Amino acid sequence: MAARRLGGSSWQQVVSLSRRCCLPGGRRERYRCSSSSTALGKTVDNSEVTQEEIVLPRKKTWDKLAVLQTLASTVKRDPTAAHYMFQDDPFLIPRNAASARLFALSKESGRNAAKYIIKQFPQYFDKTFAEPNVPCLMPETLTPQIEGVSEEALKERIHLRRVKESVDLFDQLVQAGTPISLETTNSLLDLLCFCGDGEATPEKEEEEKEDLEEPGVNASEQKAPRRRFQRGSQSPGWREDNNAERIFKIMPERNAHSYCTMIRGMVKHGASAKAYDMYIDLLNERHKADVHTFNALITAVPYLKEKFVERWELAKVFLNHMVQQEVQPNLLTFNSLLKTLRRCGGVGRSMSLLAIKEMEALDIEPSLATYDHLLFILYRGVDLGSSGVISEVLDDVEKRSFTPQDPDDAKFFTTAMQACCDLKDIKLAYRLNKAMEKGDNWKFLDMDRLNAYWSKFFSLLCMMEQIDVVLKWYKEMCPSLFYPTPKNILDLLQALDTANHLEVIPSVWEDMKQLGFNRRYDLLEEILSLMSREQHPEETQLAFAKCAEDIKAVHEQTGREQAPLEWTGSALGSVVLLFSRAGRTQDAWNMMERFQQINRIPTDQVMDEFLNCAKQTNNPDEAIKLVKLAASLGLPSSQRLKSRTEEEFELSEKQKKTLESIKSDSDSSDSDSDSDSDRDRDRDCD
Question: What is the rounded average pLDDT of the residues 532-561?
Answer without folding.
Answer: 87
